[in-house]
Amino acid sequence: MATEFDARHSESLAWVLRLPFVSASQLALLLGDREAAVNAGLRSLDRQGWLDWVDSPVPDAEAARLYVLTDEARKWVGERLAAGAEAFPLPHAHNEILHRFAGIEATIAFNRFVAELGSACRRDPDLQLSEALSLPVRRREAWWPPGVHGLGVLQHRGRTAPLFVAIDHLAAPAVHRAATVAGWYAHRDSGRRSSPDAPIIVLAPDARAAEEWKQAVVGTAERRGVLPLVVLVAQRGTGLGGNLLAGLRWRAQPSTCQPITSNFDGPPETLPRSVRLHEWARQALGDTPARARRAQRERVAALSLFASPEQVKLLETVGRLPLLPESDLGLVRAVPPPLLRRQLERAQRNRLVQVVVRPNGQKHFVLGEFGLRLLAARAGVPFRRFANHTPFVAALPGAAGGRLQTLIRQFEHTVGANGFMLACLRDGPGAETPTLACWKNPIEAVVRFESGGVRRTLRPDGAGEVVQGAKLHSFFLEWDRGTERINVLLEKLTRYAAYDRSATAASADVLLVVTPNPHREAVVWRAVSAVMRPEAERGEVRTTVASLVDQYGPYAPIWRQFGSDARESWPG
User: For the CA atoms of the chain, what is the radius of gyration?
Assistant: First the structure.
């Protein structure tokens, strides 16, 4: 039976072609139609073999089901595109679809931005969204800036204004934002740009990330001695605002975009059945993981298809806090033991997490290579950059796994520091009990500061923040096992003293030192008196013994201060 096509079907397919994994609610905003009517049209196109869909793995009420053209539909459209002259490249290749699903959070965020932009244009009779699409994965001959997710073109009273959109992720490191901005400047200076005045709109996840983008744009321009790029930074979820139109660069010429809907004129009567994404993903996960780059990309995309929000949070916890046993992971995640066990078993089957078994038989969990690859793809950060510049620790092959090997070699030290933080979790929260609000692993706790004109680095065993009442108490943790020589201890405490006297230090920072026995505690105090006496006199150093932490808990009166043998509680 012939496929019953009308203008609405063609327009829907054109938007799905432009915006892979678009939702029905987003299409309703773009088409200016009721969501119920759009859903009915999508179901019809699904039955006719044009559309595939997946459930959104991101908790978002506006994007429950995400639509994409089937393999056969993309093949048919690709033949039409090859025969014509399109104004813009379209993301219809197989690797484009996998790339967008691997980074599904950015995909959904960009599609939502376009849908809201289209809806805003419909409310202004003089404003039109003449084009918007996801740009293909970066190519050598690309005329668009690297690291942008898509392009939009607005038209207003005969003038047009193009704009690029970049989506940021909370887990992306600052070095990635700086490298992306450097790539934008290099692209602008290369002379291959087609839209010299097109601004780049960055949708940042929070205020901290937004500030990092702004500093990177200004700092890179100063280092290069050039005019700053036009980059508009906004936080996701705050709406488009009035600054968007004010920041655009309008051209006194009409849009030359060719209607993409024309590619769906004269469709075939039937389309052969395509392999559905769910079927493809199950097959990809059933195969043995390969080292080939293409195979790795496909496996990560397949993993992303089945990764629930709870699974991703588990991976983030295992990556940030490696070598925790199952019971401690349950405490951190606040997940019932049966549910946590099922999540861990599933993650092990998919090689997202691995197990380190100690001589006593106890299992400790660490992030696997594909778990780290999945988190990197979700963040939109190249894998090596993500592995080197984020606090996640994973079991990686070769020298790349050095972080984990160091923690395993110092296993008792790692378990001891983790145990202190876990004790802080177990003993709170309560009406009068302090609450551990932030737990930083040794990588997150690293502080870089300037002292006497020299850049220095402080490397605690951990750090955190405790809330008691309305007051926040931040601390550094040193888990001292008594194995370091006195000169090493003095050098470490000297760094703490230099940090406390620098402009970077916060007034609330306290150094907590946990020692193996009272004799070592006395040694620590002699070292403190030698190199950081002023800080100790202000109450910025406290010590205790590990057995007291185990017996009474970290919030009990077990802490010594400078010049006293009495023990008091902290925070007090």
Answer: 28
Range with lowest mean pLDDT among 131-140, 217-226, 428-437: 428-437
* pLDDT score at 2: 42
Q: How many domains does the chain have?
A: 2
**What is the tens place of the pLDDT at every residue in 462-498?**
999 999 888 889 999 999 998 889 999 999 999 999 9
- Please work out, in degrees rounded to the nearest 5, the angle formed at the alpha carbon of residue 219 by the alpha carbons of 499 and 229: 155
536 assigned to some structural domain: yes
- Percent of the chain, pLDDT > 90? 58
Last residue of one domain, picked from the residues 363, 382, 409: 409
Return the pLDDT at 244: 67
Q: Are residues 429 and 536 in the same domain?
A: yes
Average the pLDDT over 349-361 and give the result.
91
CA distances to 184, 206, 559 from 245, rounded to whole Å, are 21, 22, 58
Residue type at 158? G
pLDDT tens-digit series, residues 121-160: 888 888 888 889 999 886 667 888 999 999 999 888 888 8
End-to-end CA distance of the chain: 79
Q: What CATH number corresponds to the domain at position 455?
A: 3.40.1350
- Residue 143 near residue 362 (C-beta atoms within 8 A): no
- DSSP H stretches of helix in 351-485: 369-379, 383-389, 402-409, 411-426
- 308: domain CATH number is 1.10.10.10
Nearest in space to 383 (alpha carbons), one of 394, 372, 393, 391? 372
Q: What is the pLDDT of residues 261-282, one digit of tens each?
A: 666 777 776 788 888 999 998 8
Question: Do residues 308 and 452 both lie within one domain?
Answer: no
Pairing status of strand 363-368 against strand 559-560:
unpaired
Query: 386 and 464: one domain?
Result: no
pLDDT at 361: 86
- Let me know whether 422 and 389 are in one domain: no
Evaluate whether residue 367 is within a structural domain: yes
pLDDT over 80 (residue 60): no
Categorise residue 440: left if φ over 0, alpha if ψ from -120 to 50, beta otherwise: beta
Select from 343, 377, 409 the last residue of a domain: 409
Q: How far apart are CA 399 and CA 314, in angstroms?
A: 25
| 420 and 551 co-located in one domain | yes
In terms of domains, do 297 and 398 share one? yes
Residue 238 lies in a domain: no
Residues 557 and 417 in one domain: yes
Q: Which two tokens stand for residue 180?
A: 């992306």
- Tokens read off for 119: 């809806």
Could you give the CA distance from residue 130 to residue 346 in angstroms, rounded to a whole number? 45
Long-range contacts of 179-186 (CB under 8 A, 24+ apart): 179/385, 180/146, 180/147, 180/216, 181/213, 181/216, 181/217, 181/220, 181/229, 181/231, 182/220, 183/145, 183/146, 183/147, 184/145, 184/146, 184/147, 184/229, 184/231, 185/220, 185/221, 185/224, 185/226, 185/229
